[in-house]
Amino acid sequence: MNPIEFWFDFSSGYAFFAAQRIEALAAELGRTVLWRPYMLGAAFSVTGARGLSSTPLKRDYAQRDWARIARQRGLTFRPPADHPHVALAATRAFYWIEAQSPDAATAFAQRVFDLYFSDRLDTASPEAVSRLGPEVGLEPEALLAGIADPALKETVRKIGEDAVARGIFGSPFFLVDDEPFWGWDRMEMMAEWIRTGGW
């Protein structure tokens, strides 16, 4: 069966919560997960939208909602004071790692979320991101060189553009059997869609 495509920006609070649940949910449904970080700014440039953290009223609500979800689920949620970061370094690192080992890339993505939302990782810094290399069996120097590879940079840019061309515009955003679901709060609906074959 087709995997659940999990599209996200590493700086998305709701994507953090989705990342805590998606693997277990997919296992319950007999599916795998295709983790797909991308730069949400690529979608904003098309939709004209702005991130929650830079939108008055929505920003205040989102901060309250994130804290509420974290308390309910017993999760640490402490984004950096200068949140959101432009997580380009982490996104490029993911795809470089994926080319070596998809399983390592998934573990890396989960670690990035955990560290960024506990205010212990600058996802915009190639040097900071590269220090996670040993946690997934890679040398920091190799990961740093991968992040800087011009071919990889072009690949990551194209992934973002292709995502938007497919109608992906938010974070988290899920595609399952070509059916789109936008938002952390659509995960249970997505699960029911898979269980029933849709409606």
From TrEMBL:
Q: Does the keyword Cell inner membrane apply?
A: no
The DSBA-like thioredoxin domain, residue ranges: 4-193
Q: What does it catalyze?
A: 2-hydroxychromene-2-carboxylate = (3E)-4-(2-hydroxyphenyl)-2-oxobut-3-enoate
Q: What is its EC number?
A: 5.99.1.4
Entry's Gene Ontology molecular function annotations: 2-hydroxychromene-2-carboxylate isomerase activity; glutathione peroxidase activity; glutathione transferase activity; metal ion binding
Annotated Ca(2+) binding lies at D114
Active site located where?
S12 (nucleophile)
Q: What is this protein called?
A: 2-hydroxychromene-2-carboxylate isomerase
Taxonomy, top ranks, is:
Bacteria, Pseudomonadati, Pseudomonadota, Alphaproteobacteria, Rhodobacterales
